[in-house]
């Protein structure tokens, strides 16, 4: 059984394959690929991460975004290694990342041997930890109240009725509403709680890599497949398999997944062997799958098979009563972690938090409180400790109303010219800082880049 995870943050298929080849010789580690930097902190809290690999480029995960990620990893006493391709990251930025706490900055494939050394060290730590670990179950992350908001009490009662069944579950909700944490909660409450809990990020990899990640592959199945490799469907056993961003699956994979869900069997890539699927499947999406079906982007039969039991997580702006208790929970979490004496939030700051519309939902609130704890000079978080967009919400456009059937985000009802206007205004307010503009708009930076390409506005940073 695998002891811990190596987390690779990259969307480059060739680099992912290079790392996979190096990684495959380390039997005590499991490689997980995360294509979205905004999900890294959640993975760190959810999984036993032994080593984090950040692929830094000028157009993808750049040095500016990598710095807070490195800080977040090192605060949890984890090692982080920065990976670059030659000429992808200027030398002065690589030196700066090393000073921020990165254990090393490696150029692949030139430094493949050094990467192997870091993996060897991580594997040895896993072996040592396994020899000393007790049988007591690990405590659930502090973010558990994400899914226990007062507005979700009736929903949680329904969850409790289905956790003991093998029913497929579909979780919908805007980014940051706690869908993955609810999936974890379902797993922890079920009879499968002692089995693996694995997540496949369907939006992070190309179609060929997603198929291999899900089903595994046999030696010779494609270029670079120099050994048999089990996928998540095999590794999860009788546990829980979460398919995140299920809407991103290409049509061909949707057809294969339909067979898996209906017949409970799958085949590794390049193999004729049919293997049984014993795991429970939980699908997650932040778009309206009904609309995707109507537009021909998602198979209707697969949607109906996944949506046997569905739970829709409300955005934070519709859970105003929960903002204050959640903010205080995060305050105590970060104050305790950092040894701060901050013990509460001023009435003025609390009013600002409750007035803001939170496009990034609970994840954004948590990040805002973490920042405020770091900046606060007194025993209280004051209004001036909050970001300007929270202090002065009247400067920002209100989010568009969402469709009642699902939660496609603030872009669902916008015409192209209005969408372009919102993007342009956000970039102007943040002096063309794309990371901050994307945060204000409630979308990932990758989504913002795609929209800039769409409107012919993309230029190299």
Summed up, what is this model?
The protein has 461 residues and is of the alpha/beta class.
Topology:
Blueprint: E1 4-9, H1 13-23, E2 29-34, H2 40-46, E3 49-55, H3 63-75, E4 79-84, H4 91-100, E5 104-107, H5 112-132, H6 153-162, E6 169-173, H7 179-189, E7 197-201, H8 207-215, H9 232-235, E8 240-244, H10 251-263, E9 265-266, E10 275-276, E11 280-285, H11 289-294, H12 300-306, E12 309-313, H13 323-338, E13 344-345, H14 347-355, H15 361-375, E14 380-381, H16 388-391, H17 416-429, H18 434-441, H19 445-454
Parallel strand pairs: 1-2, 1-3, 3-4, 4-5, 6-11, 6-12, 7-8, 8-11, 13-14
Antiparallel strand pairs: 9-10
Could you explain the architecture of this structure?
The structure is a single chain. This protein folds into four domains: 129 residues, Rossmann fold; 167 residues, Rossmann fold, CATH 3.40.50.300; 77 residues, Helicase, Ruva Protein, domain 3, CATH 1.10.8.60; 39 residues, Arc Repressor Mutant, subunit A, CATH 1.10.10. The protein is 43% helix and 14% strand. The strands form four sheets. Strands 2-1-3-4-5 form a five-stranded parallel β-sheet, with helices on both faces. A five-stranded parallel β-sheet has the order 7-8-11-6-12, sandwiched between helices. α13 packs across α15.
